[in-house]
Amino acid sequence: MASASVFQDEFCCSICLDLLTDPVTVTCGHSFCLKCITGCWDQADHKGVYSCPQCRETFTPRPVIRRSTLLADVVKKLKKTDLLTDATTPCYAGPDDVECDFCTGSKHKAIKSCLTCLVSYCEVHIQPHYEVPRLSKHKLVNASSQLQEKICLQHDKIIEVFCRTDQKLICMLCSMDDHNGHKTVSAIAERTEKQKELLEMKRDNQMQIQQKEKEVEEVKGALKSLQASAQKADEDTEKIFTELISFMKKKRSEAKESIRAQEKAEMGRAEGLLEQLELEIAKLKNRDAEMEQLQPIEDPVDFLQRFQPHLTSSPVAKNLPKVTFETKFSFREVMKSVSPSLEEKTKEFHQAILKVTGFMKGDTVKLRSVRRPYSRYRYNQNTEAKESIRAQEIEVSRVRQKQLELKIAKLSNSIQLSGVGEVTGKTLLDLHSFSSHAEVLM
Questions:
Q1: Distance CA 135, CA 138 (A)
Q2: Using CB atoms within 10 A of its CB, is residue 364 exposed (0-12), middle (13-18) or buried (19+)?
Q3: CA–CA distance from 243 to each of 239, 248, 281, 432 (Å)?
Q4: What does the alpha-carbon distance between residue 426 and residue 431 come to, in Å, rounded to a whole number?
Q5: Which of 26, 93, 187, 244 could form a disulfide with 248 if both were Cys (CB 3.0 to 4.6 A apart)?
Q6: Is CATH 3.30.40.10 what the domain over 2-87 is classified as, yes or no?
Q7: In sequence order, which residues have a C-beta less than 8 Å from that of residue 54 and are 6 or more positions away?
Q8: CA angle 36-41-46, nearest 5°?
Q9: Which residues of the chain have pLDDT under 50?
């Protein structure tokens, strides 16, 4: 190896100290990488004098350099030899690797384990199992560090039988001794059955994942509907209270706060349900990943030993209660607080009209509180149902005059009282106050 290193040094560039790349030879006979000598001489262009980096011989003008074909072929072959040497270098076992039981000193990494010999072999020591006829019949599996767990502690024999009566792995002597008369099969046969069971469990687990994901989408859809419904309720509330006179602004704010509180409460409930579903999905996916790792195991004993915990583990409940989600937005309580104020303000407004209209003495103007449906929304998952809430409406007896000009001194704001939606009663009173005038439109 030392002579090979010295031989390799003869073909190193004295500038980059690496194997020559695109080797060229200058006038003095020394060889360099084309890139290295070109860069070196480019820096000397301002002097006009060029020198060999190795022997310091100077040249004027700048010499013409030519590629050395023979030297390039030699370096190419030398690099191939190095790659071949590196490829045949033994691979030693790391902290997480299975060591070869036949190696002495530094252990090489084992690539196969023999279930007959109960020994792990590296690339070199496994060769007899491929070449010797009797050894070629041995059962080889991927290198495993748990070979001793495949030995029966009672009889010191290979575990290769599965007792279906006791649901445990045993050796041949156990089947004739403690398990005599029990229903037993080979570990390979039991693995085949358990593999089918594993596939069924995996299929069922996948169905549960899909069901949970579907429920997640339903909850997310309900959340979107809830948000849209809350926004719609907010817009309707804004429209209603915008059309009312200034004294209702405070009530509008209270109504919006009520909606927000209800929305927040239902959002909290829905998000809690969503978090629970996502947690269950995560558990199912973790279990699925464990089963995915178990499936490709070829060693039946190893497979069955790892399979047993999955039989005792408790999966996520398959039949959880169906997700139900219903949210109600109601203005009933809001309107209970709004109605008295509306009725009181309406009476005040009527009294102001009577004070400034002397020609209405002969006309009976009667105000009474009647029921009138406004839109109220009851939200469920489909956000389809609508109910009505009660509000206040002004019904007056028919006033024969088509248009009356009223001076309202106490009401300086522009006010409009108008019905929105279904009308109950004979006639609505629309009052429009522009500056100091009001119009009664029948």
A1: 5
A2: exposed
A3: 6, 9, 49, 12
A4: 16
A5: 244
A6: yes
A7: 14, 28, 30
A8: 150
A9: 1-6, 83-88, 331, 353, 356-442
